[in-house]
Amino acid sequence: MTGIELREWRDADAAAVLQAFQSEDMRRQAPWPMITLKDAQGWIAAWEGVGHAFAVTLDGQVAGNVAVTGIDRHLNGWVSYWTVPEARGRGVAAIATSMLAEWAFKERGLFRLELGHRVNNPASCKVALKAGFLAEGIERAKLSYDGVRYDVERHARLATD
């Protein structure tokens, strides 16, 4: 798939962020309720100083987010990703996550990237595997949403992979 690019988030992307967080699965993952453009602008601003987040664009339109955070002294980082519903199932997330990994290894000098997904989310697992992240194991009952505990599968990709 062509037409996928990573770029810095812009204040002008707030409407796209707000729209993205309206889908049911994304609402659960929002750090706070996304109701207004100000909420979405806050989400964009909140990335400042916590890592590197990039808008994923598909043919110039915002289609998702990829980020690496939690960078430690061992040159490890935590990867996260999401795409808007319209971009799912098209390989956008896997390509963007692979692009992020290459950037993190080459530009940021990281050695190990980790990510995790709920085991009941096979689509996210496919993204991780297609982006070159190998499965490393299950973290039992790691996440809790609405009082329900979820196991998480951990994946990692090394600069030497």
UniProtKB/TrEMBL annotation:
Keywords: Transferase
PROSITE patterns attached to this UniProt entry: GNAT (PS51186)
InterPro entries from the UniProt entry: Acyl_CoA_acyltransferase, GNAT_dom, Ribosomal_N-acetyltransferase
GO CC annotations, alphabetized: cytoplasm
Name of the featured protein: RimJ/RimL family protein N-acetyltransferase
Domain N-acetyltransferase: 4-155
Organism: Nonomuraea endophytica
Gene3D superfamilies for this protein: 3.40.630.30
UniProt-listed Pfam families: Acetyltransf_3
Transferase is among the record's keywords: yes
Example of a GO MF term: protein N-terminal-serine acetyltransferase activity
